[in-house]
Design a protein that fits this description.
169 residues, alpha+beta, Alpha-Beta Plaits, six-stranded antiparallel beta sheet, two-stranded antiparallel ribbon, 8 strands, 26% helix
């Protein structure tokens, strides 16, 4: 059975728009029914928690239906990052060509060293909540009581409002 899954896409090196398109296209290859996906607009956002002088990010969120386990998806997502040129680095939140995070995996709740679902900082990050609210504002994450839209409205952060870059990509 397919599980509705949310994945965030970010890029702040190289051709950011092309990087997001390439990642999206590869993620859609994991989708058993390519017509059942959603994608947000692309937003430009300030780098959050990154080294000083890091370039701005392009961020988006997609939802796909996935058949497999969360660990299978994590392995696939990491393979896509590697294929698209993400270079592992010891520096936390270093600039990167592509960054993919699993935001949620159906109703799954898990907290392991390699994977926590839903993503532990999802509701604290405007650069994730804004694009997610584009496609699923009424979504209530597993273990939560508020919708994504409510989390976005209540968000208390210094992050500036994301700038819309492109709706159709």
């Amino acid at each position: 059975m397919a599980i509705r899954t949310g994945i965030s896409l970010g890029s702040n090196l190289g051709n950011r728009l092309a990087n997001l398109r390439d990642a999206r296209d590869m993620l859609l290859g994991l989708n058993p029914t390519e017509t059942s996906f959603k994608q947000s607009s692309i937003y430009q956002t300030d780098p959050v928690g990154c080294p000083s002088n890091s370039p701005d990010f392009y961020n988006a969120v997609i939802e796909i239906d996935y058949i497999g386990t969360p660990h299978d998806l994590l392995s696939s997502v990491q393979g896509i990052e590697w294929h698209l040129g993400r270079i592992p680095t010891a520096e936390r939140n270093a600039p990167r060509k592509i960054d993919l995070d699993i935001l949620y995996f159906g109703d799954t709740i898990m907290d392991e060293d390699v994977l926590t679902l839903p993503h532990p900082r999802l509701t604290d990050r405007r650069f994730v909540l804004k694009p997610l609210a584009d496609i699923s504002p009424q979504l209530i994450l597993p273990g939560d009581l508020s919708t994504v839209g409510e989390h976005l409205r209540k968000l208390d952060t210094d992050e500036p409002e994301p700038s819309l870059i492109q709706s159709m990509w």
